[in-house]
Specification:
CATH architecture: 3-Layer(aba) Sandwich
Number of strands: 15
CATH topology: Rossmann fold
Strand content: 25-35%
CATH superfamily: Vaccinia Virus protein VP39
Helix content: 10-25%
Distance between the termini: 47 Å
CATH class: Alpha Beta
Structural class: alpha/beta
Largest sheet: 7 strands, mixed
Oligomer: single chain
Order of helices and strands: HEEEEHEHEEEHEEEEEEE
Number of domains: 1
Shape: globular
Radius of gyration: 18 Å
Length: about 250
């Protein structure tokens, strides 16, 4: 384990024990576990992200905004008759997704902790296998993201869609010359325009922090003015201390 990972883990443990001091203390609502009350801060590459985590289920900003978008989509699609492939599943929403969908399958690059091993750049699953593909914070790890997007398109059934959020951490996407292990193996720092490159493959809708219920606290509060840094050597600085998260929904064209 790296020195950074050890420091990050220690910071999170301290954060959870003493409840860190934040600039403000508002009450929020977690759409995943139903908790209502104060959220706690979390540690990241920039230091502290205020009001980031639900103290009950430990979910972060991205999990809450993604679930809010899934809830919006559930009003237009009958998930009870649909299948979903959940790539790199996390503990925050797997149970809820399994209850929503008729068929729920999980996959991981190495197969560990999932139903199957799936490499999105070299996958032998049949065409049109799933109605929905959900891969949260996966594409920033894939060097050949074009091949991964083409695989997602191939695996989607007619009328299907993919939810493929990535961390929006720069004003414009930065492609790295090498994988950065202190960023947990990222190969790029996505910007808001990242998924525009796949507009020839999909019809793309995007949902931002401003588009969902504000009571769930869907913004990322952190100071990114210190980029680049030792831990993030290729990221570029962004002004402000409140940043928008984005959830892209990529629909297979009719």
């Amino acid at each position: 384990m790296s020195v950074y990972s050890k420091a990050l883990g220690l910071g999170r443990r301290i954060d959870n024990v003493i409840v860190p001091v934040a600039v403000w203390r508002e009450d929020y609502r977690c759409p995943l576990c139903g908790y209502e009350g104060h959220f706690i801060s979390d540690w990241s590459l920039t230091g502290v992200r205020a009001n980031a985590k639900c103290p009950k289920c430990d979910c972060s900003e991205r999990h809450r905004i993604q679930w809010a978008v899934i809830d919006k989509l559930s009003r237009h699609y009958d998930f009870s008759q649909m299948s979903i492939l959940h790539m790199s599943p996390e503990p925050f929403n797997g149970t809820q997704l399994k209850a929503l969908f008729k068929e729920y399958a999980t996959a991981e690059y190495n197969g560990i902790g999932a139903d199957m091993a799936v490499d999105l750049t070299d996958c032998d699953l049949p065409d049109a296998s799933y109605d929905v593909i959900y891969a949260s914070h996966v594409f920033e790890h894939i060097p050949d993201d074009r091949a991964a997007a083409e695989t997602v398109l191939r695996l989607l059934k007619p009328g299907g869609f993919a939810i493929l959020p990535v961390p929006i951490v720069c004003e414009e996407t930065v492609e790295y010359p090498e994988m950065v292990m202190t960023e947990f193996g990222h190969i790029r720092a996505p910007g808001p325009e990242y998924f525009d490159q796949f507009a020839d493959l999909f019809d793309i809708d995007t949902y931002s922090s401003a588009d969902v219920d504000q009571s769930i606290q869907p913004w990322v509060y952190e100071d990114r003015s210190g980029y680049p840094s030792k831990w993030a050597p290729y990221r570029t600085p962004s002004p402000g201390k409140r940043h928008t998260d984005i959830v892209p929904v990529l629909k297979r064209p009719s």
